[in-house]
Amino acid sequence: MSAIVSVKDVNKTYDGGFEALKSVSLDIDEGEVLALLGPNGAGKTTLISIICGIATASSGRVTVGGHDTVDAYREARKLIGLVPQEINLEPFETVMNTVSFSRGLFGKGRDDAHLERILRDLTLWDKKDTQIKELSGGMKRRVLIAKALSHEPKVLFLDEPTAGVDVELRRDMWETMKDLKSHGVTIILTTHYIEEAEMMADRIGIIAKGEIKLVREKDALMDELGKKQLVIELAEQAMGIPESLSDYGLSLVDGGHEVIYHYDSRKERTGIIRLLNDLQSAGLQMSDVRTEQSSLEDIFVDLTKGEAR
Amino acid sequence: MTAMNLTAVKAIYVFEMKRTFRTLLQSVVAPVMSTSLYFVVFGAAIGSRIDQVEGVSYGAFIVPGLIMLTVLTQSVTNAAFGIYFPKFIGTIYELLSAPASFLEITAGYVLAAATKSFAIGLIILGTAFFFVDLNILHPLWMLTFFVLTCLSFSLLGFIIGIWAGNFEQLQLVPLLVLQPLIFLGGAFYSVSMLPDFWQTVTYFNPVVYLVSGFRWSFYGLADVPIGLSLFAILAFTGICIGVIWLIFKTGWRLRD
Asked: Does residue A98 contact residue B86 with C-beta atoms inside 8 Å?
């Protein structure tokens, strides 16, 4: 896969001296879903704004589809659809008017069939002649998506698309994203819902304090950083870990009712069977055994600990 | 650089014109109504007690000035509101991220604002025929001044709309700057009626050149040479375009 969006050494310092982005570099592959995770104020929106042309970088270079976003902004921007975080819509316009305005603004000729398809997909067709101020919050967000898709972009930026959206609509939104992905649209998603990133993304980027902390395949990230632990419930309360088991680095929790063992699931020998045998020999009776894997959320919290502003 | 994105110009223009038609009452009826009141009060009531001004009845004399008064304020407020509103509600993000140059975005908004004020000016001109005897000596010149005024002051309004940080500021320039300039710009009198000193002061008022040129196209009466009027309005247009170019280039009040 080739990079459709390429960000190189982008810095952004605001007039007040605040450094929103510090030498950010990032390649986004065509057709992937990249989730950018980060605490509030980490620089997610600033990065998107620079790629889309709403803000200017203090230094560095961005290309979209090989086109420089400053020198060849027309070609670059034609490829981009942006769904902003805030619900910014003309309250008195009808849905259809505002969507066809977006299409025209991006230089595409009238195509009623395409707009109808988008509006139907987003279940907005019935509301096409409704004034936007009469729509619910969730519907308004769909209008923003419809606007972004009106000119058939290759890259779609979704800035916190499911913030403040109810569960049902969030699931609908995820379905829409999957559908777009299946049509080859590259999606860059910012979110602070870890669940969303875990569910949707092919790759995950973590950004904090204006710096990209890591970008990794989601599965690899989970494997690499995901600690696995074996939790052994004991039939009877234990007062301490027997001497014979000291090599395992076990910890006794829950008032002596549970023993926890950390292991690496990718190793050839996890040591689980040996441990279970040794536990038996030490005279500890087990009532249950379960494994737990740390979620993306734990990884995220670990990486950005103390960095949230 | 690829060809101009004329589709974007059209999209903005159509969108803005739809807004005009949606708010037809306040957009068109209100200015026509207020100008008609001017005709009744100044033209008929007061005008009947005033001698002719340079051979033209006072009611007729003020018609070009009245049209200018409305066209100028309408152009400025329409264009200012047109670009201020997206800024205010946040939809400006779309304009800034669109594959459209400053020229195209400006053209869309300014042409729409100019069209609207042109239509209002035309309606007022039509209304004037009901109140006074009018003849237009140089119709083509009249049209030229008319169109140029609509365009140049829509450009000025566009700049004000970008500059304005709140609704008060949006009202401020039309109220505090434009209105005095228009009233002191010879809309209701001939500059020659003023004492010498004030005549000199008046020549620093750009509106004088507009009203003078416009009135000349009606009655052949001018306070300043017609060529100078034309030059003044073209220069003003040029300055406005230059300022807008700078605004988009630097992103002033638009881009972070």
From this structure: no
